[in-house]
Amino acid sequence: xxKVILMGRLTRDxxxxxxxxxxxxxxxxxxxxxxxxxxxxxxxxxxxxxxVAWSKLGEFCSKYFKKGxxxxxxxxxxxxxxxxDQGQKHYITEVVAEEAYFADSKKDGxxxxxxxxxxxxxxxNNTNATSDFEISSGDxxxx
Length: 143
Description:
This protein is mainly beta.
């Protein structure tokens, strides 16, 4: 099984290009994904992971994703090689996106604060829903 789930911030705006053979849209960008643990006395480390999104998903990413935005990506790892003009062999490992989600608390510039929570930015049915779990000020918390 080859499945990757990532959440991170875009390090740059998505870059769009089209394939030479059948003019298919390809969007590529990089996510800075924080590592789970931090060594004592050190700053949090991040991995910079290359993402590729094709066709409609690539169009969505290029239109709505911007540098610094937090997003979620589900996809698969792919490796490939190629030779450059000087005959030098290059290797790359990247994630081919199959789903992409907004992960920020609200869409940039949206005064209503409505959350985007699905692929291609579909709005949830009930944006004013309250949580089933509420904490009153008198509750004892274990932290």
